Amino acid sequence: MQGNMPPEAQEKIEELQELQETAQQVSEQKEQAQSALNESKTALDALEDVDEDAGMYREIGEVLVETDYESAYDDLEDKVDSLEVRVEQLEKQEERVEEQFDELQSELQQMLQGGAGGGGGPMGPGGPGAGGA
Asked: Residue 126 contacts by C-beta under 8 Å, 6 or more apart in sequence?
């Protein structure tokens, strides 16, 4: 089937595949950031129930280093804030990629329904199998 496909349509398909990969990567990054955000929020909530004089340690790599309550709390708050921003950025990026994907998919459908001419003119009745989804 691809042998009869115009080169422009093949390019659109390749762009769609690239966008699909990008969408997958962004989705995975967002999922990781959301998970880290949830963990940090849970730790911050737990820290609020801890006595401020309690001995505290933070993990740096594979080493635990002693710290004080205020530093630990401030660091967690900063981490939560930055992760919230990161998740928000990734959500916006995900939306942009989805919009680009939808636009490209529509262009491809119009190109393929328009026949070999591919002039981009008004679409006529698509006939059997011409629907979207």
From this structure: 113
Give exposure, 67-100, as e/b (b: 16+ Cβ within 10 Å): eeeeebbeebeebbeebeebbeebeebbeebeee
Q: Read off the tokens for 23.
A: 């969408």
pLDDT digits (tens, 9 = 90+) for 66-93: 999 999 999 999 999 999 999 999 999 9
Question: For residue 125, with 0-12 CB atoms within 10 Å meaning exposed, 13-18 middle and 19 or more buried, which class applies?
Answer: exposed
Q: Hey, what CATH class is 6-70+84-113 in?
A: mainly alpha
Reading the block at residue 51, the tokens are 């006595």
8 A C-beta contact, residue 91 and residue 20: no
Q: Is the pTM of this model over 0.90?
A: no
Tokens of 110: 């119009």
